[in-house]
Amino acid sequence: MKDTLLVTGATGNLGSEVVKTLLEEGFTVKAGTRNIDAIQSAELLEAVKLDYTDTSTFDNALVGINGIFLVAPPMDPEAPAKLVPFIEKARETGVKHIVFISALGVDQNEQAPLRAIERALMDSGIAYTILRPNFFMENFSLGFIAPMIKQRGGIFLAADEGKTSFISTNDIAAVAAKSFADELYGKELNLTGPEALDHSQVANRFRGIRKQ
Question: How is the chain split into domains, by residue range?
Fold first, then answer.
């Protein structure tokens, strides 16, 4: 029987994809979220309330859990203060493996909030896998860029000709599932897409899709 895993941020673009992928791989999943009504019922899936700012939600979320897919609140400078107590509680309850979603390049900046969480996890005594993805491809379809495209018909960012190897949440979720299944302990993995593109190239590809 496969492990029971807690997915934090389970209603987000990435978290929901991870829930789906883990269920397809036969894991039992607890979907942790502040809004349990947003979780659709499914076999092997349990919705559970989890709020990093409310430590009273930790115990129930962690009952019977072997591993955690850990997501920090996005762009939150206070993220370490919220997640470190949760990591400590996970250690106390016997969680054996945490897969943490960080971000590409944070290991080059010891002052970055996500790097502080990485360090706390490494020092926790819990087996860990750190995934550092580049920018999500879904930012254009579901994330912060999507309204810009829909409302203004373009991408307006101060990016000049800078290129990014965008990665899909599908691929990140697949790596997360592999990390649990193969017990990739102590690994720090940088995740990127197959090709670096600037935003003009991205826009041109969208134009090509619209013409089809």
Answer: 4-134+167-192
Query: What is the pTM (predicted TM-score) of this model?
Result: 0.89
CA distance 87 to 126: 9
Quote the CA–CA distance of 70 and 111 in Å, as a whole number. 20
CB 97 within 8 A of CB 127: yes
Q: Look at the domain 4-134+167-192 and name its fold.
A: Rossmann fold (3.40.50)
**Angle between helical axes of 113-122 and 79-92 (0-180°, round to 10):** 20
Residue 49 is predicted with a pLDDT of 96
pLDDT tier, 84 (very low <50, low <70, confident <90, very high otherwise)? very high
Task: Using CB atoms within 10 Å of the CB of residue 57, give its burial: 0 to 12 exposed, 13 to 18 middle, 19+ buried.
Answer: middle
How far apart CA 132 and CA 189 sit, in angstroms, is 6
Q: 138-187: per-residue pLDDT in tens?
A: 776 676 766 777 777 777 777 677 788 889 999 999 999 999 999 999 99
Q: Give counts: helices (H), strands (E), the chain.
A: 7, 7
